[in-house]
Amino acid sequence: MNHTLAYGDYGLPEGVSLSHTLAMLCVIGVVTVALRAFPFPFIARLRGSDFVAHLSRTMPVGVTMVLIVYTAVETSHDRGGWWPVLVAIAGTCLLHAWRHSVTLSIFGGTALYVLLLNVVA
């Protein structure tokens, strides 16, 4: 039985050799490992930093607010206006005031928002 590939050897496009592909994959692997290992020598110096402590307190709330505003603005133009956003935010706040659970607030608020967008709006 004769099996011929539509492309070059090993399923690679014409003009691309297996040795070049393997060389590129090795370089990509080394760069990936190096970039992931790069921050670790600096961790000891940053542990006592006041700036890093400040960022660890403020960034989660800041990132969450950016995501909320972005999502609210993008979906309010396309679907249902502002009312699903405002109801979901109010529902999230009420859930958090009731149970004081960040996890429940996030999942409950998200579920309410998705429900409002897909079923009600």
Give the averaged pLDDT, no decimals. Answer: 86
Count of DSSP H/I helices? 5
Q: From the alpha-carbon coordinates, what is the Rg to the nearest angstrom?
A: 25 Å
Question: Helix coverage percent of residues?
Answer: over 70%
Alpha-carbon distance between the two ends: 59 Å
Q: Which residue ranges are poorly predicted, with pLDDT under 50 across at least 5 consecutive positions?
A: none
Give the strand content: under 5%
Question: Strand-and-helix sequence, N→C?
Answer: HHHHH
Shape: flat
User: Class by helix and strand content?
Assistant: mainly alpha
Number of domains: 2
Total beta-strand segments:
0
Largest sheet: none
Keywords: Membrane, Transmembrane, Transmembrane helix
Pfam families: AzlD
InterPro entries: Brnchd-chn_aa_trnsp_AzlD (IPR008407)
Protein name: Putative branched-chain amino acid permease
Structure description:
This protein has 121 residues and is an all-alpha fold. The chain has 2 domains: 1-46; 50-120, no CATH class. The chain has 5 helices and no strands. It is flat. 5% of the residues are buried. It comes from Corynebacterium kroppenstedtii (strain DSM 44385 / JCM 11950 / CIP 105744 / CCUG 35717). InterPro entries: Brnchd-chn_aa_trnsp_AzlD. Keywords: Membrane, Transmembrane, Transmembrane helix. The chain crosses the membrane at residues 20-39, 51-73, 102-120.
